[in-house]
Amino acid sequence: MTRRIIIVGGGVAGTMVANRLAKSMENEVYNGELEIVLIGDTGKHIYQPGFLFMAFNEGFLEQFAREEKYLLHPKVNFVMDAARHIDVDRKRVITGKQSFDYDFLVIATGSYPDMESVPGLAAGGHTFYTPEGAERLRYEMLNFQGGTLLVTIDVPHKCPVAPLEFIFMADDYYREAGIRNKVQLKYTYPIGRVHSLEPVAKWAVKEFEKRGIEYETFFNLEKVDPEKRIAYNMDGSEHPYDLLIAIPAHRGARVIQDSGLGDEDGFIPTDRYSLKMEGQDCVYVIGDATDLPVSKAGSTAHYEADVVVRNLISELKGLPATHRYNGKAFCFIETGLNEATYITFNYKQPPQPVPPSEMLHWFKLSYNEMYWLSARGIL
Amino acid sequence: MSEVNITKTIDARGSYCPGPLMELVKAIKRGQIGDVYELLSSDNGSAKDVPEWVNKMGHELVYCREDGDFWRIAVKKTK
């Protein structure tokens, strides 16, 4: 009898799980004992860290996108159709056209930046967290002749170091353009320091002071007046801007909300070690879709994929799922257009940034290409 | 002492990035006035960071106490 594993979501997490599982259980997949189905709503797989580079005219979407069907192992059944409903009681996923029963389910539906999360933000602000947003922002950045560039950050959001990378790259960008003296760069953060990680915050403040980047802490965006170009903080203070770049609160996928599986933001209650959905023995949750207090980042999904695949293999072989996720994440941090650093941490070990270097910047640029090996389950 | 009615407990133990306070900020922003959120944090910095944020943003600190090797901090959304 064929057992079926359904993976919903064709991003980093879903694609890695599908490919690693297919490679690890090639015999079972080829002799028909195991079917791996990946349900994704788009045929394009996009490497999202590329958006940051697009905003600075350092690349175009085509170079950060591949056809999902060519990334997948040939025995992964790719269904290009949006999942409409996930019924964990009946162990079934319903798409626009079909219905699939499963033995095990992996939910990898990700998250999306919600520009509607704050009144006036969609009309008054820009974001580089979506391909369309990065394209529009590229145009604004190229044509910005001076004034206040304000960065606001809401929670939760993907890739918590990207806003810092953005402001440092903006500093380099306008210096190279020769108009840095006309551009006031202002970075804000919701809590009492400029990044949630204290070592990163300490390092970033030194850089801000060295580069003349203004910063404001305890900034929680409550509304935006697009006409007057004013951003309002939760404490009532007003912050005028000429160009507003927001990292808005993210939400879980619509299908999670529609299926009643998530919390108020659409994130799924997940066991932090086993990565199983709370109360569901046959459902794993991975990547941004979880409600775990870890970074919503590609590296998190990557390390989680290792655990989920090994546990799925164990369970398919009749063994208990004993592998545990330890909260590991690894993030490169671009500190300008020519240097980078990195941090790594887990549930027990806090991060410590290393001094930025040109070599780490080139390693990051190389990883932008090597990513495709990771997605294929090779690296 | 009257019992506090907790709307939701947020287990942010072991969280470095985005970190316990950011988890609390998320809940407060989404919550209703009068909701009480209890944060569990294994980061000693939370005992200082959270009351500071609550004070600055005008919400109410209900309690902040150690419970074994972690902190229990409850915050009421007031506006």
Automatic annotation (TrEMBL), chain A:
<dbReference type="Pfam" id="PF07992">
    <property type="entry name" value="Pyr_redox_2"/>
</dbReference>
<dbReference type="InterPro" id="IPR036188">
    <property type="entry name" value="FAD/NAD-bd_sf"/>
</dbReference>
<keyword id="KW-0560">Oxidoreductase</keyword>
<dbReference type="InterPro" id="IPR052541">
    <property type="entry name" value="SQRD"/>
</dbReference>
<feature type="domain" description="FAD/NAD(P)-binding">
    <location>
        <begin position="4"/>
        <end position="142"/>
    </location>
</feature>
<dbReference type="InterPro" id="IPR023753">
    <property type="entry name" value="FAD/NAD-binding_dom"/>
</dbReference>
<dbReference type="GO" id="GO:0016491">
    <property type="term" value="F:oxidoreductase activity"/>
</dbReference>
<protein>
    <submittedName>
        <fullName>NADH dehydrogenase-like protein</fullName>
        <ecNumber>1.6.99.-</ecNumber>
    </submittedName>
</protein>
Automatic annotation (TrEMBL), chain B:
<protein>
    <submittedName>
        <fullName>Sulfurtransferase TusA</fullName>
        <ecNumber>2.8.1.-</ecNumber>
    </submittedName>
</protein>
<dbReference type="InterPro" id="IPR036868">
    <property type="entry name" value="TusA-like_sf"/>
</dbReference>
<dbReference type="GO" id="GO:0016740">
    <property type="term" value="F:transferase activity"/>
</dbReference>
<keyword id="KW-0808">Transferase</keyword>
<dbReference type="Pfam" id="PF01206">
    <property type="entry name" value="TusA"/>
</dbReference>
<feature type="domain" description="UPF0033">
    <location>
        <begin position="10"/>
        <end position="34"/>
    </location>
</feature>
<comment type="similarity">
    <text>Belongs to the sulfur carrier protein TusA family.</text>
</comment>
<dbReference type="InterPro" id="IPR001455">
    <property type="entry name" value="TusA-like"/>
</dbReference>
